[in-house]
Specification:
The protein has a three-stranded antiparallel β-sheet with strand order 5-6-7. It has 24 helices and 23 strands. The protein has a domain of 223 residues: Glycosyltransferase. By secondary structure, it is α+β, with helices and mostly antiparallel strands. One of its GO terms (biological process) is endoplasmic reticulum mannose trimming. Keywords: Calcium, Endoplasmic reticulum, Glycoprotein, Glycosidase, Hydrolase, Metal-binding. Belongs to the glycosyl hydrolase 47 family.
Length: 575
Amino acid sequence: MFYHAFNGYMEHAFPLDELRPQSCGGEDSLGGYALTLIDSLDTLALLGDRDRFAASVEWIGKNLQFDINKTVSVFETTIRVLGGLLSAHLIASDYATGMKIPTYNNELLNLAEDLARRLLPAFDTPSGIPFGSVNLMHGVDEHESKITSTAGGGTLTLEFGVLSRLTKDPIFEQVTMNAVRGLWARRSRLNLVGAHINVFTGEWTQKDAGIGTSIDSFYEYLLKAYLLFGDEEYLFIFQEAYAAAMHYLYNDPWYVEVNMDSAAVVWPLFNSLQAFWPGLQVLAGDIDPAIRTHTAFFSVWKRYGFTPEGFNLATLSVQHGQRSYPLRPELMESTYWLYKATRDPQYLDAGRDMVASLQYSARCPCGFCHISDVEFHKQEDHMESFFLAETVKYLWLLFDLAVGPDNLVENGPYKYIFSTEGHLLPATPEISLVQEHCSYFGAYCHTGNMQNESSASDVASNPQETNDGSLYGRVRTRFPSGSTFSDSTPISGLIKGVCPGLTHGQKFGISYVASSHRAQEESRNLRKPTVAESHSLVVVPGQTSEYSPSENKNYHEKFSESSVGGAVSDTPQKR
């Protein structure tokens, strides 16, 4: 399936962005820089295709440039292009992956840094939340919309954070962390966020809270940024956001959209982007609700052969105007994670049904077509690049795991975090242990501050600081009763303790932007204690990742002052 689509793209569409699989042509959909090839790089490596991986990396290194007069989506460019370049760089430059290219000389990393610097002007807003689009040559247009989605502003931390750690330039991680803080500081008193926000005023223009369209990957990157970087601030935010979502949005086994202020239901709707959620719950250790929700979501797939963009839970029918299936990967992703967690063969059966639907109804002459109507399986002449980056990748990983995995993800030298585009980001020491080995890597330390400041030495000298009095922590995850995978997972290494009793706002001094007469006590009272008990996540004590100020001037000076406190106080507030 992968090569049918990939070869179709290379023969009929390359170097245009995406393939027209029915007419065997191509089209530029994002920026005109071989988008599908970039998005496919780490899938080629995962499949062990050394020749095509090396040839593709070489072509991109020699021919790709971003000095072009194109206005692009900050979100899509980050997750597809920047993420694809970084993932391929980390594979091509490392002997341990088994896919190192001898002639490779950091060309993809240099391209990634150049691209990210061209995206930086989008973050120049009073709230720290970026514009939705930016021109790669001229920056933000003066007429650019000031409205952006929550996912668009909050799903940039992994790619920009990895780039900071590889280039040892903290500006990229700083601006994306400020964007997350800017969004979270404007949450409602119910700890819910809306779908769209004005990046200048900080006012929500669409207050529908949910886990799907326009918000989905905001939740995803909170947890994954903590897992990859170890920064506990992301974990604190995720815990509060997740608890609120399970309390106000979860209508077992479905999820609804509610008003972020009142929690009144506004949409009893399943949309296909929600299907990532069970996979995220597996990473969070909340397995039981993930199983029930996946069963409900997959029942929609079984009913139509695909998941429509919208399925009305009140009428139990396809939502008008949302009848299409654009080859989305989210249900495959959750199926893979649930099989990995439970080894229940029902998920292999689900994967087989998904493959059958794609093969019999979506396959077309040069690739795989969008389905414009899930009830009549009508094909549309378009294939998104994420079909090769994610959809077939998760299906391949699912079945490879079943027969005894022999691939980079399962048996490779590192643990991998998947970006929201399915790109492989490894938890290498350079990326994940910057603070623990600050004096060794010298990544974000002042030159005169290179003493033994690692968390290991801190804990060794102050063992009483940890919560449980020990130097080790454990993560407890929830599995179905009777599961053979229900043992606690030990966390090795020395971990500095934190007090789990502090809220995120208490620890970091960040509170939601609201009228002054609303006390934070109200926020605490509105959350039922039983929710935290039934869907709780155990805090793993970890070291907060903090950068030292940088010497660079241009964007560094501006954004180092743009901490969330400043961003909130300088933004007009609706009183």
